Amino acid sequence: MNSQExxxxxxxxxxxxxxxxxxxxxxxxxxQQFCEDGIIRAGTLKSIEIERMKIGPxxxxxxxxxxxxxxxxxxxxxxLEHDNCCELEIDYKKKELIGNSLDSLELMRKKIxxxxxxxxTHDDFSPFIPKDSVLLIREANPKDISGxxxxxxxxxxxxxSLYYLTLTSDDELYAEYKDKQTVFSLNLFxxxxxxxxxxxYLNNGTQ
Length: 207
What we know:
Layout: H1 3-11, H2 15-26, H3 31-34, H4 42-49, H5 57-69, E1 72-74, E2 88-90, H6 92-98, H7 102-113, E3 116-119, E4 134-139, E5 151-156, E6 160-167, E7 173-177, E8 180-184, H8 188-191, E9 193-201
Antiparallel strand pairs: 1-2, 3-4, 4-9, 5-6, 5-9, 6-7, 7-8
């Protein structure tokens, strides 16, 4: 089916049935497959498709995002208005570009929920990490040391310090950040808390 044929079919369906049609007939996915990336929960989708739950603006926006990742470009009104004109675009190139990366989205989401956010309230780490940026960190343990190779870490002693840590052949930790270099012994973990920086959310005024 081309975009116009799909649009004509959707016009005769309720917003909830439009979702089901696109999921089943165009994407050829069951509810579990459609919800694997966590953008829409399976329970929510099921309730919507049997018209037990009303579709609100937030859910409609999530549906638009989800379908766009699958190569179906549409407006949120498609899922909110019964008399919508149901215009959409099928963009298979976008789907091809995204490829199998969607399979990793849920794993990324789960990982993020396990990290601790730390907001940077000063300019000490600028310009690499501007003030008000957020670091997503996890606490390091001695088992992580062998893998340290320019690993960005937040060290908490009397104050927070940021260093790239590398395990040397002398079983020491070479630390560097901007114009600072130093060497730590491995007993650093005995008197400081060391956190591995997994992700950085930059607040540079462009968001």
